[in-house]
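S.,

As promised, the PBG run. Input:
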Amino acid sequence: MNEHRHAARVRRSDAPVAADPGVIRIGTRGSALAVAQSTTVAERVAAASGLEAVLVIVTTQGDTSRAPLSQLGGTGVFVSALRDALLAGECDLAVHSLKDLPTGPCPGIVLGAVPERADARDALCARDGLTLATLPEGARVGTGSPRRVAQLLARRPDLEVHDLRGNVDTRLARVGADLDAVILACAGLDRLGRSGVITERFPLDEVPAAPGQGALAIEVRADDAARAPYAEALAALDDPQARAGALAERAVLATLEAGCAAPIGATARVEGAGGAAGDARLSLRAEVASLDGTHRLAAEEAMPWAADDPDRARTSERLGRAVAVRLLEMGAATIAPLAPLAPLGESGAGATDSGGRRPGAAPSERTG
Ligand SMILES: NCc1[nH]cc(CCC(=O)O)c1CC(=O)O
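Predicted complex:
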């Protein structure tokens, strides 16, 4: 099989697939976006392991419920069924959009890999090539995300914001119909080959996106993470910089414990990794806004970062917590609906799980 390592074979199954040592079964949601994402993952897993990769389609509550996402959130609506399938041995890896993962731990499952990140920015998709600056007074813009609502109204208080749900095509179909524009993640549109509908990509420094946006999370059963052939497949997929950034951003969310109704944006990046050893830094900027966009607070910090630091997950989480604590000191809890965890001192750092949260606290979920 080795001579065919690059001719990756990916098959799709809507029915259960029996365990087979020659096959890696990759659990995914069935939406066009989820399948596009997981197909890329499957091709890389097949190439790295020499095994056949099969996509096992799993339907989640987030796919079937028609309730507004901001009301559905809080329980991992896009995630639980996939995790159940993984724990039940119905698939070997599960692919999620990282921003959909609750910040709390999931017993028996670990974050096996965070692949190279796609464009983390939000996209304005407007009729007639319009941008945020050129949308007419009172234009109608669709988004289901409280963060996006707040960030929009902060810049254009005149806009009329409308709730938005459904898959990417359903959302885009409203542009030029009942809406002038919608906001979606660049990552999803780019992965679907729909970049042409984007009329503006919002700069992350001004409009920080949802923690983890644009990143994928590959989950694996904890017992299997270090075992062949999963270990090789995961190592081939993992991008340490993407993982560091996503973990730092999510630690902001975990520390602020915001539930899904609080507008929080966070954007982290590794800088200077190509330069002299020891010069790289992980920087993180986060923003909390009031729901109506009239009040916003931002904080930014950086820490030294090294790809080979065995403690780098903690570095990411410490950075995220530090930025969250700064936001709280600035009064974040007085402008937005937050339920912050008391910040942990250095001695307490070991008491958090990999999401930077205290064990036992309820997980939260972002919806966009
Ligand atoms: N909120 C749902 C969601 N979860 C992940 C993505 C795709 C982008 C990504 O991978 O972060 C989307 C759609 C969107 O925000 O437009």
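The first strand starts at residue 10 and ends at 13. The first helix runs from residue 32 to 49.

- D.
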